[in-house]
Amino acid sequence: MASSSHSSSADPLSETRLYIGNLHPAVDEYTLVQTFSRYGKIAKLDFLFHKAGPQRGQPRGYAFLEYSKKEVSG
């Protein structure tokens, strides 16, 4: 019988990476940066667009934002 050494600790990326969904089509990268930069330094923003089909070039309605470090409040 094999024993699993999988750790139950959280993925380090999940502490700094944020999924932002259900975005209005008028929301752009600038708006996201202006809105979320007040909560910490943004290291990366993945703003996704349709790559093919009739909506090619249009925003997909969600983005991923990564902070440079986890902010500790307290």
Q: Explain this structure to me?
A:
This protein has one helix at residues 29-36; strands spanning 17-20, 42-49, 59-67. By secondary structure, it is mainly beta. The chain has one domain (13-67): Alpha-Beta Plaits. A three-stranded antiparallel beta sheet has the order 1-3-2, with helices on one face. It is elongated, with a radius of gyration of 17 Å. The model is unreliable at 1-9 (pLDDT under 50).
What's this, in brief?
By secondary structure, this protein is mainly beta. It has a single domain, classed as Alpha-Beta Plaits, CATH 3.30.70.330.
Keyword list:
11% helix; 3 strands; elongated; 74 residues; single chain; mainly beta; 28% strand; 3-stranded antiparallel beta sheet; Alpha-Beta Plaits; 1 helix; disordered N terminus
Secondary-structure blueprint:
Elements: E1 17-20, H1 29-36, E2 42-49, E3 59-67
Antiparallel strand pairs: 1-3, 2-3
**What is the gyration radius calculated from CA atoms?**
17 Å
Q: Tell me the number of helical segments per DSSP (H or I, 4 or more residues long).
A: 1
The number of domains: 1
Main sheet overview: 3 strands, antiparallel
**How much is the average pLDDT?**
83
How many beta-strand runs?
A: 3
What is the percentage of strand-forming residues? 25-35%
Q: Spans with pLDDT under 50 lasting ≥5 residues?
A: 1-9
CATH superfamily: RRM (RNA recognition motif) domain
CATH-assigned fold name: Alpha-Beta Plaits
Globular, elongated, flat, extended or rod-shaped: what is the shape? elongated
Structural class: mainly beta
* CATH class annotation: Alpha Beta
Ends apart, CA distance between termini: 45 Å
Task: Indicate the percent of residues in helices.
Answer: 10-25%
- Side by side, the strands of the main sheet go 1-3-2
Assigned CATH architecture: 2-Layer Sandwich
